Amino acid sequence: MPTRNSTDVIVIGAGVVGAACAYYAARSGLDVTVIDRGPVAGGTTGAGEGNLLVSDKEPGPELDLALLSTRLWRELADTLPPRIEYETKGGLVVASDAHGMAALREFAARQARSGVVADEVPPDRLHDLEPHLAPGLAGGFHYPQDAQVQPALAAAQLLRAGGERVRLRLGEEVTGVLTGSGGRVRGVCTPSGDLHAPHVVNAAGTWGGEVARLAGVTLPVLPRRGFVLVTEPLPRVVRRKVYAADYVADVASDSAALQTSAVVEGTPAGPVLIGASRERVGFDRSLSVAVLRRLAAQAVRLFPVLTTVRAMRTYAGFRPYLPDHLPAIGPDPRAPGLLHACGHEGAGIGLAPATGLLVAAMLGGDGHRGELPLDLKPFGPERFDGSTDPRKEPGHGA
Q1: Could you tell me which of 226, 187, 221 has the C-alpha nearest to residue 204?
Q2: Exposure pattern of 118-154 as b/e (b: 16+ CB <10 Å)?
Q3: CB of 106 within 8 A of CB of 120?
Q4: Which residues of 290-305 are buried (b: 16+ CB within 10 A; e: fewer)?
Q5: Max CA-CA distance within the chain?
Q6: Which pTM value belongs to this model?
Q7: Residue 364: exposed, middle, or buried by beta-carbon count in 10 A (0-12, 13-18, 19+)?
Q8: Each residue of 222-276: pLDDT tens digit?
Q9: Cis status, amide bond into 276, omega within 30 of 0
Q10: What are residue 286's phi and psi, to 5 degrees?
């Protein structure tokens, strides 16, 4: 029986990934305590746009994870309350010239072999999908599997759906990881006392590297800052997530320098969300007017109708970045009892259900380890040998 000081599983992090881990673990019969130094969705999740994307992913392990999550989000949409704002609106990737269109065509062909649906849209049909798009584009690809949720509400509802098996301890910082014989993890330390469990899940997002260090292992998670502009409420002038072809290259880039590419999407509530920027500047939250101007200008080039629209607010968030662009998911053989579920960069909201399902299967609820629906080897945390130290990054911890 769980007590205030003991449980079956401790999940560190109350963002959407941690919430999904807790939900699926509870559904498999385990008692879970979710602990976070802030509120639910107080970190990267609360700064996200809620994108559930397959359109921006190269064929490979991350796309496989995204396709699994796509199916799971559909199931969750039937289970969780409508207020999570799950919307299967699809995505539209556009090219400005023939060269860009050829690159999109080749990319979509490779994705199709992995099960992604992508329909080519010729220039004269773009306005059937998005009437307010700028003229003169070379065409695009429509991805009907892309969807969206309201991320903070999704995290909260996943935790609630775990029922009595999920306990929350918010506003409580993990200050240490308890270990026993052989270095096996057996719980965590907090200012209010120790909490014991045979399994600890590191779902701390951008701070996943710090949690790993508490357990004596290296996980080189780095923050990658991004800004989002939010407009005044509008009629549905943007029906889908629409972005320029260079967005995919930005997602895959290893550069620490500033990158911006137009990403524009409408929401059920009316405001249009405008991104996306990426830069590694540590945890610097300083507002960058130059970045916001670039985002606004790129958005207007895609949707001239936004020229006179007011931006009501902006916010910054930090994507939890790992050097090979794949999350760390699964048990860490360097610290038995520790599992990782972090480092998803900007895709954590989309990849959360698959991550939670996999973690729950490895935790072995109901007395057995579940069959894994895909190969976890590419996500193994032990692939980082300690040679990469994120504390040596310029601006880290600022």
Answers
A1: 221
A2: beebeeeebeebbebbbeebbbbbbbbbbbbbbbbbb
A3: no
A4: ebbebbbebbbebbeb
A5: 68
A6: 0.92
A7: middle
A8: 999 999 999 999 999 999 999 988 766 555 555 555 777 889 999 888 999 998 7
A9: yes
A10: -55, 135
